[in-house]
Amino acid sequence: MTGRFISFEGIDGAGKSTQIASIAAWFQARGDEVALTREPGGTPLAEDLRALVLNRPMDSLTELLLMFAARRDHLQTLILPALAAGKTVLCDRFTDSSFAYQGGGRGLPLRMLDPLADWVQDGTEPELTFWFDLPPAMAAARRAGAREADRIEAQQLDFFERARGGFAARAEKAPQRVVRIDASVAPDAVWAQVQAVLQQRYPA
Description:
The chain is 56% helix and 13% strand. It contains 8 helices and 5 strands, in the order E-H-E-H-H-E-H-H-E-H-H-E-H. Strands 2-3-1-4-5 form a 5-stranded parallel beta sheet, sandwiched between helices.
């Protein structure tokens, strides 16, 4: 892996998309070739699986397996080739979201998630993860009216409380990789936190 692999996490409504665009511009200004992608999705097959996961009724284990199937194709088809080419890969969600949403939110045990992560990723992990953290009630207020909710966004507040706890557990487990960003403040203040991390991790 010769490129950089950075992921972005947080419950829906945390404002990841705005910050990812700014981060992409920051790396491009330094001369990096940037690959912007997302999960579930990023490849034709993974996007098809995304549509199923977000719109079709299914049980929690089926949801988990489809997420990891999409991730495997995403890794093999896009992420690993981009890293081998020396690109900076910026990924909106990765495996932390599975642990937070299907693990924390849905309540699936780690004994299901850990082996899937090992098999599917085969050692590939982001070198840096930004976790945009904010209270679920605030996230819900931001999401309201923004767009029609998909099957996961339509979950009750307690689901997102558990998902937030899942992200917190992942951050505690990997403190060198996962950096918490207070996403409850104004976008400019969020960007100031992000930029400070970028300048520390990737000095000119």
